[in-house]
Design brief:
Length: 107
């Protein structure tokens, strides 16, 4: 398995909230080891919905959590385009997930 960079923004958000890794994991409904692996860059949440849950729990944006210095060379316009594309994707995925139960009952 590829090791990513340590997820510093997740660590910062947790420390700002004043909780331990175990407390954060319990509140997010995941195993402590899973959460620990996220912070250490050994794994990553498997869906944008989990990212939204994490961001909501820590009261930060997904953009804050996902910020990475590798993108600091992008111009302001490029950054805004990336943020807009991510927001649109998140909106479409949320709309699709919300529509799915209704479609099943209509059939």
């Amino acid at each position: 398995m590829e090791k990513w960079e340590r997820w510093d923004r997740l660590v910062q958000a947790r420390k700002a909230k004043g909780v331990t890794q175990k407390e954060a994991a319990a509140s997010l409904g995941i195993a402590y080891l899973t959460y620990n692996r996220w912070e250490n860059g050994e794994a990553f949440p498997d869906s944008i919905f989990k990212l939204r849950e994490i961001a909501d729990y820590f009261e930060v944006s997904i953009d804050y959590l996902m910020y990475n210095d590798r993108y600091s060379s992008f111009s302001g316009i490029e950054k805004q385009l990336l943020l807009n594309a991510a927001a649109l994707l998140q909106e479409r995925l949320s709309d699709k997930a919300a529509a799915s139960p209704n479609e099943k009952t209509a059939q």
